[in-house]
Design brief:
mainly beta; 165 residues
């Protein structure tokens, strides 16, 4: 089996949380010419922790630090494509991961501006790069939830709740 390991370049991640984010891809067999699956992993304190699915989707599509937390978007889903928002923080209890649930009508990307965290829908090119961005809304997060809100501050409900993977 062949593996490909890549680190995602996320500004201020190491300096703030002392962690790294990796993609681990593998081929299904020695004669395969395409990647079969991808796992998204957090590396912290000599441990690897899975945090999101990438099966059948683009995997980690965007990530940005805001304060002491990493905010990210990812997509997955063979047959029914889902796009999620999430956050990762490190507390005295360890790694805390929040997930918005899956949205099927969007390819979500998270970024930040002077007003906070902004969410776009667009065409995925590569990690932190997308085409034809259309503003969808903003991130509203607490210590126990992460939500997508529209321009009026109303919560947009995901089509699937939780990480569902």
């Amino acid at each position: 089996m062949q593996f490909k390991i890549e680190e995602f370049p996320i500004e201020d991640l190491w300096d703030t949380l002392h962690m790294q984010i990796f993609s681990v891809r593998y081929m299904s067999g020695p004669d395969s010419e395409s990647w079969f699956s991808e796992d998204l992993l957090i590396y912290l304190d000599d441990e690897l922790v899975p945090f999101a699915s990438a099966f059948g989707g683009f995997g980690l599509t965007s990530a940005v630090m805001s304060g002491e937390d990493l905010y990210f978007s990812y997509s997955w889903g063979s047959g029914m494509h889902r796009s999620h928002l999430g956050s990762i923080s490190v507390t005295s209890r360890g790694i805390e991961i929040l997930d918005s649930g899956g949205f099927i009508d969007f390819e979500l990307f998270v970024d930040k501006d002077d007003a906070g965290l902004i969410v776009f829908d667009g065409g995925f090119e590569e990690f932190n790069s997308w085409t034809n961005p259309i503003e969808v809304g903003r991130v509203r997060s607490t210590s126990s939830s992460i939500k997508l809100t529209d321009s009026l501050g109303e919560e947009l409900e995901p089509d699937f709740t939780g990480s569902d993977w």
